[in-house]
Amino acid sequence: MMRYACLKRQRYESGPLAVIPIREADMELIRVWRNAQMRVLRQSRPLSPEDQKRYFRDVVMPTFEQPQPPMLLFTYLLDDHPIGYGGLVHIDWENRRAEISFLLETARSREDADGEYARLFSCFLGLMKRIAFDELGLNRLYTETFDIRPLHVQVLEQNGFRPEGRMRQHVLVDGRFVDSLIHGCLSGERDYA
Prior knowledge:
Blueprint: E1 12-14, E2 17-21, H1 27-36, H2 49-60, E3 72-78, E4 81-92, E5 97-104, H3 116-135, E6 140-146, H4 150-158, E7 162-173, E8 176-186
Parallel strand pairs: 5-6
Antiparallel strand pairs: 1-2, 2-3, 3-4, 4-5, 6-8, 7-8
């Protein structure tokens, strides 16, 4: 397993759910999930297997040894089976902030009423807060969400992320301009497990 030099631990758990440093073995799964869910990502074209391998080799792999990497990506596990990925991206070590990135496998990504998406996303947010605030000493986490995901926004707000702004008609989704919503959470707002 790859190890992040900046982390004391390489596995963070909450019951049957856990995050571990992203694995090369999960690259193809992640590529498929990203391509299937482009409408909610800042991704303008489908990724080829070569694109994914190049990104992992040139961008992700160097971060494991860096004392202050620009991102920490994790494979999200349920009973040790990968169900998603995400992490802390655009880390600004000087200003002690990072953006949260999150994507579930496509079959689990539906924002429906059965509660699975909300439960899985809530747990992931708690794990990211623990890593960011308790281990890395960051002060602020933030997210950007396209305003086509009401449950995603609701879960953010239920987990202590406050609405901070709306970028009007910021992205083109399915042929129409939609707003991007910014949410933030501060280290002092410790409402996580």
